[in-house]
Structure formats: C-alpha cells, structure tokens
Amino acid sequence: MRDGLERLGFFTYLGGTRDAGEVLAETIELCVAAEELGFDSVWVAQHHFGPIVGTLPSPLPFLAAVAARTRRIRLGTAVIVLPIEHPVRLAEDAAVVDLLSGGRLELGLGSGTEPSAFRALGYDPEQRRTLMQDGLRTLLASLRGEPLPTGHVVYPVAPGLERRVWQGLFSPERAREAAALGTHVLLPKALPGDASVGAEQQVRAATAFREAWRLPWPGRVALSRPVYPSTDAASARCELADELEFQVAQANRAHARTGGDGKLTVQGFVDSGVFHLGSVEDVVASLRADPAVPLADELICQVGHIGPGFDNTVRALELLATRVAPALGWRRDAERARAAG
Length: 341
Prior knowledge:
Layout: E1 7-12, H1 20-37, E2 41-44, H2 59-69, E3 74-77, E4 80-81, H3 87-100, E5 105-110, H4 115-120, H5 128-143, E6 165-168, H6 172-181, E7 184-187, H7 199-212, E8 221-230, H8 233-239, H9 241-257, H10 266-271, E9 276-279, H11 280-289, E10 298-302, H12 310-327, H13 333-340
Parallel strand pairs: 1-2, 1-10, 2-3, 3-5, 4-5, 5-6, 6-7, 7-8, 8-9, 8-10
C-alpha cells in the first residue's frame, strides 16, 4: 500500500425501478450515514433516461441537497458526461454547489459511454472525444476566471475548484493528458474479460499519471470498486442477488459495444474478482489482491445500487468504515489528526 488509503469514498448509482423521489430521499440518508461513519466522500453518477441504470440526470442539485444535511463529507460526481453539457453553464452550477457546501465539491467528468443519450440530446456520439477536449478546456478556463470570447467571466467564483476537477479514464495516454491539464484521475470499476478496461490497465494508467504530474499541488488517483461486506459469503450473495444480475447485465452491454460476446454469468462475474464481496475477511483479502488498490489515494466503494436495501447498505458501510478500510491502512479524520498532533 502507499502508506495506506488516504480517503474512503461511498458511491451509488441511485438505480432501480422504485419511485424516484423515494430513491433520492433514501440516498440522502445514506450520505448522512456515511458521514457519521467517517467516510471522506460520497460520489454519484449521471445517467439520463433511467430508471434501471440510474435515476439521476442532474447530480449537482442532488449534491446541493446533500450539502444541506452534512458538514464535512466531500461531494463528488463520478461522472458528469461533459460532452453533452454546456461547459460554461456547468462551471456556473458547480461553483454554486461548491460555495453552498463550503468548498466540498469534487467535480468528476467523463466522455460518456451511452450513444443513445448523446443522440437523444442532439449530440453526435462519434464526436464525444472532441467535445470532451474542447469542453474541458473551456470549463477549466471558466473556473480559473478567464474571460470568455465575449469578455464575460463566470460568476460566482469558487476559489480552488479548478484544482478539484477529475477525469474518468482507463488508458495511460488519457492519464498523461489529465496530468498535463492538472485534473485528477478517476479509475472506474474494472470489467472482466477485457484487458483494455481491466485492473492491470488501470495500474498502467495510474503509473503514467503520477509520472506525468508536474504541478505544485498533489495529483490524486481515486479507484472505484464494487465492494460489499456482509456476515459471510452466502449472505452477501443472497443480499446482492438483484445487484449482481444488474452488474452482469451492465458488463455484458459494455462487452457488446466493443464486439464481445456478452455472455458473462453471475458466477463468472463473481469469480473474476472485480466485485469484492463476502465476509469482512473475504473482502479485505480480495482488495489486497487487486493490483490497482495500492496506487490509489482514495478507494470509492460502490455500495447499494439496487439490491441490498437500505438497512443492509448501512450495515455494509459500517463494516467498510470500521473493519475493511482500517485493514487497508485507512483512518478516520479524527484518528489522523490525533496521530499528526
């Protein structure tokens, strides 16, 4: 490990077919619980035209609501699809949320993986890389207070937010580009059966990012992983039955987009090691065997999408904060402060 994990994060898709208002309200309660348990951050994804994959097309208003109920936990987007957003409007909204939260926003961006969303909103999915690059340059300049071609300057100003922008990526080439721009790196969950989106590829990306970083403030790497500790392996599988079916369907869709056969099974998914579940001991051992974990400053645990239910998710968060993460070297803020003082 890199002297142990510095941060522990909680991630949720807000997925499922239940009433969207109930899901939003319940997820705010999970974020409050995560803060009380000592988690350093909470992250939410943007998905258009849910409800199965996600019911949150607008992460920033949701995080503003979370900010009103919390005081310490950092608020992350993992990710907002920048190519289908107006970068100046996004900079304005992000600045407002950052100010409302007392400077707690972590603005994660990505180029998107769902062509249908691009087309529905009037964008060409074949242009997503160009749209991402152009949009990112505009957004960063706006957050830095640089004038637009018209002379307008984004207001309000959120001091330091331009240093808390992240990019979701897999490749070493993209990681080096992120370092050159001064944006941090979000490494998504690995997918089984595809080396280009596997854990070893993420190791190469994280290494490339750290080697390329030249700015005076530290560049950070956050690693997202589905993690679910329970009382034992059988209980974890039972509590996650719906969740595992969802994850396998997602993986098969991703494989199909890249020409794969899309025939992954639940057992094959569990055996692949990309979903860390079971007893506390199982999960700790599995995370220690993940080659990308030692390179991460922050482990973002994907818990509670559609399967476990509220009570089981809170219990899993408690096990993560009290037993799993400490075994990987993580300590709560108060414990870190006592050690430093």
